Amino acid sequence: MTLVFHFILGFTTSFLGTLTPSMLNMTAAKISLHKSKFDAIKFAIGVSIVVFLQAYVAILFTKFLRGNPDFVQSLQKIAMVIFALLSFYFYRQFKKDKAPTEAVKDKAGNSFVVGLLLSALNMFSIPFYCGVTTALDVAGWLQFSQQNILIFVVGSALGTFALLYMYANFAKVIQLKSKGLAKNLNLILSILTCVLAVITFIKIV
Description:
9 helices; mainly alpha; 205 residues
């Protein structure tokens, strides 16, 4: 049951974290439209493999911090800062007038390799998973046995894959609705991460 819970944690946080239109998921939609759904799936697999590694690095970093005698307070401070930055980031995205599709250029070459490269270049991913795993650890939901860590990162990778597959599958609808969808989701995520930052700050003081 614990393993299932950790899988759900990884899957859910990853899915929600990549829900708003961004370079990766809009690229999946464009590959599906301009090449094929199969190519979009290959792209999603490439992205998910890198996410697996990024989530694993983040959770090891969080585990390392737990070795500090004052790890709870340290983790809370780190989580607060990360959630505040995430809130600001999503608010900035919400204020942008430009639709995400305009920022995404057509990608040539092997879709799987493109997925690997674009995901590796996404420096936002590791800080995100650090914030998530830190918050889950402080809440007492995340256990750091090797099995649980592995299941969590597998869930994270599959959550990302499921989200990208959804974008590829509903590419035409998402392309038409992306601007309004991006604004609404970014505002919601900005509010949620701001609330998490405030709650964490209250715990610290």
